Amino acid sequence: xxxxxxxxxxxxxxxxxxxxxxxxxxxxxxxxxxxxxxxxxxxxxxxxxxxxxxxxxxxxxxxxxxxxxxxxxxxxxxxxxxxxxxxxxxxxxxxxxxxxxxxxxxxxxxxxxxxxxxxxxxxxxxxxxxxxxxxxxxxxxxxxxxxxxxxxxxxxxxxxxxxxxxxxxxxxxxxxxxxxxxxxxxxxxxxxxxxxxxxxxxxxxxxxxxxxxxxxxxxxxxxxxxxxxxxxxxxxxxxxxxxxxxxxxxxxxxxxxxxxxxxxxxxxxxxxxxxxxxxxxxxxxxxxxxxxxxxxxxxxxxxxxxxxxxxxxxxxxxxxxxxxxxxxxxxxxxxxxxxx
Length: 340
Ligand code: SF4
Description:
This protein is an alpha/beta fold. Helices cover 25% and strands 21% of the residues. The chain has 8 helices and 17 strands. The strands form 4 sheets. The chain has an 8-stranded mixed sheet with strand order 7-8-9-10-11-12-13-14. Iron/sulfur cluster (SF4) binds at residues 22, 24-25, 27-29, 37-39, 42, 88, 138. Residues 22, 24-25, 27-29, 37-39, 42, 88, 138 line the site of iron/sulfur cluster.
């Protein structure tokens, strides 16, 4: 491969017999000469690790920020969104697999410098940029260069991620990040190992670090898959862990699964499962809980946790009304958690 135009990666070290140990995520791939790691876009050429996804988005979109989903970070705003090919997880139920499982050659990948991405956000008046669609952990160098420039320009940046990332690398990658949505894909190691090829404890560790070690605003999403991670008992355990380790102010989104990729033998998540899971979370003390990928006025409304007044009404990804006043409940004056 012609490497003169490729960017040498961060977070790796030489290993035995010309191999490279990639230290970006807890998979710690040992990559032989000419080979890619599990995520495909980090490759060993001539004893150096290259990040071949750098500057190679698979396409851009302007999305509502509610689509990430983020309900407490500049609600109703638009966000320039993109990802690259590849992924460091192997979710059998991937809802975005045409991108995450793609090799760059499968796409007419664009060439976009960090400056180009900032220009695009400005051109479309997007106050934020999301690294999304596949897991941005694997193109961390690109994330850093864009988010640094964005901060200088007053543009916010958002990671939409599974949180499967090495402790040292995450400190570097999140340095200029303003917000994140982290998938907590289930609450058993069985689920994580069997269906995502990753490990629950690594994700929990990232969530605790985000809460206690950073200023990043983050929300959590759990895609409920019938028969796999949707039992009331598992939902209770997840909520209990969130309350004990992250507190009651991290918004939690339960979203509906549709049969896809290698999991087409399951049905769509019933609305009842989503609504019941939300009820459990709220009854246990989680202040903000939402349902997604279905229409639900009640399940998509932000209520004041104190006086229960509806503050932001939504339908799917659209904000219908926003009665917040300076980040507070217009009625009782309670400060609502988030960035408004
Ligand atoms: S980032 Fe990619 S190459 Fe590096 S350890 Fe993770 S999956 Fe392997």
